[in-house]
Amino acid sequence: MRKIYLVPALIGLLTSVAAGPLAAQGAVPKQKAAPAPRAAGAAPAAAGTPVAAGATSAAAAETSAPDDKSKAIDSKAIDGFRSAKFGMNEADVRVAIAKDFGAKPDAVRAQDNASELTHSLLYSAPELPPNGGTAELSYVFGYKSKSLIQVGAVWSKATDTAITPEKLFSNANILRAHFLSEGFKPDSIAVNMPVNGGIVMFRGSDAKDRSVILLLQGTFENKDNNQRVLTPTSLLLFYVADAKSPDIFKLPPGQF
């Protein structure tokens, strides 16, 4: 069974994104038929034409965010995913999964992480978003609190054998457009930022620094004119209560 190692990766991801635009110049998503990811507000590209996925900072993203900044800060609170709220215990999250998806008890799988000492519930959910294929949802419970600290969704060939790069692009674009309209803190918003192994399609936080991260992963190829082209293999979506200091096991200082 695939192990869930999500929280530590998010710490490094948030650090690199927060540092500003990365040095990957000319990174573009590879495509066959579907439009490639593009910065918010860019003109549509013809099918089959790669579009630059250069880093877009909060200032540029604000063109698609609400004009009233104070309203934007107050309008969006990240408290979990659907009926599953941060701070819930495992029994309550199981009830939430059943409510949200009509899941039978035996469809929800449990998994432990031996290094982080966290516990997770996994569920395969179809059509997130509609016509988006099957995603594997993971509900992660903290090491000390035993309560919900993170919800993730992954789309890939491992979660749905019918998934395609075009479908991953489509899901990424739909979700990015949705999050840009949600009213996150303007200075926390980043879109189309190249990172190792992929592109951060969206990153935003609420007033309590709880975060949403949308990451398109894949393999980069160097093309003409030093363009780096991404062929997507998976799309990851995270709702995180505290990405900078997650509730996972860490060795106390001075023990080794």
What is the makeup of the main sheet?
9 strands, mixed
What is the distance, rounded to the nearest whole angstrom, between the alpha carbons of the first and last residues?
A: 31 Å
Q: Give the fraction of residues assigned to helices.
A: 10-25%
Give the domain tally.
Answer: 1
Order of helices and strands: HEHHEEHEEEEHEEEE
Helix and strand content put the structural class at alpha+beta
Computed over alpha carbons, the radius of gyration is: 18 Å
Instruction: Detail the poorly predicted runs.
Output: 5-9, 14-55, 57-73
The tally of strands reads: 11
| Beta-strand percentage range | 25-35%
Look at the structure and give the mean pLDDT: 79
User: Can you tell me the overall shape?
Assistant: globular
Number of helices: 5
Quick synopsis:
The protein is of the alpha+beta class and 256 residues long. It has helices at 7-18, 58-61, 69-75, 90-101, 165-180; strands spanning 27-29, 80-81, 84-85, 109-113, 118-125, 135-141, 148-156, 193-195, 198-205, 211-222, 228-240.
Main attributes?
256 residues, alpha+beta, 9-stranded mixed β-sheet, two-stranded antiparallel sheet
Description:
The chain is of the alpha+beta class and 256 residues long. The protein has one domain. The protein is built from five helices and eleven strands. It has helices at 7-18, 58-61, 69-75, 90-101, 165-180; strands at 27-29, 80-81, 84-85, 109-113, 118-125, 135-141, 148-156, 193-195, 198-205, 211-222, 228-240. The strands form two sheets. Strands 1, 4, 5, 6, 7, 8, 9, 10 and 11 form a nine-stranded mixed β-sheet that branches. A hairpin with a 5-residue loop joins strand 10 and strand 11. The longest helix is centred in the C-terminal third of the chain and has 16 residues, at 165-180. It is globular. The two termini are 31 Å apart.
